[in-house]
Amino acid sequence: MSDIFREVDEDLRRDRMEGAFKRYGGVMLAAALAVVAATGGTVAWRNWQQSQKQQETTALAAALSQAAQGPEKGVEALAAFAAKADPGMAALAQLNAAALLAREGKTAEAVAVYDRLSGNGGAASVYRELAALLSVMHQLESGDPAQLQARLQPLTADANPWRFSAREMTAVLAARAGDKDRARTLFQQLADDSQAPAGVRSRAADLATLYGKS
Hints:
This protein is mainly alpha-helical. Helix content is about 75%, strand content about 0%. It has helices at about 1-15, 15-50, 55-65, 70-85, 85-105, 105-120, 125-135, 145-150, 165-175, 180-190, 200-214. Helix 1 packs antiparallel against helix 2 (about 15-50), helix 2 runs antiparallel to helix 7 and helix 10 packs antiparallel against helix 11 (about 200-214). This is Tetratricopeptide repeat-like domain-containing protein. Keywords: Membrane, Transmembrane, Transmembrane helix. It comes from Azospirillum isscasi.
């Protein structure tokens, strides 16, 4: 990662911030996704373990296995399962279906699934908020920065389980919007937060330094 940040720093010194973001935005996006996946996986697994509805658990596993026959089959099976499952299991199915769509490059379709889930009052807040976070994540390089930051704002609250990823994405969006000072401040706050995951703190420290030099 140090070589990447060195190259970004050189780009910024030549006042090509926008070009640098386009070149390296994917790296930051992948890093944010890794954090989300790890945290989301823990939450999902705990939900799975606590569930007493073995039949639905088995059915969800069967729907997931259909992806081996092709992403389209997996998405169809997960959608069919979600239509008749309880809200918690349906949310897990929708998250997996959206992930399959995104993996196939069908970003708009994936975002639509995430948005439907985030607006579903019957689903648990942890899943609705995760869906909103993932929706924003898939629009980091294409969506309107101001609108996306507004959507992330509730997720940055101290008690929110997704706050660190939401804060990191907010900083990335500030940089994309050209607000380098705000991006540096947000990254520095993350770097100084002892509760943030080590990877987030390290990445934020590098980026705070980078934007401090630009």
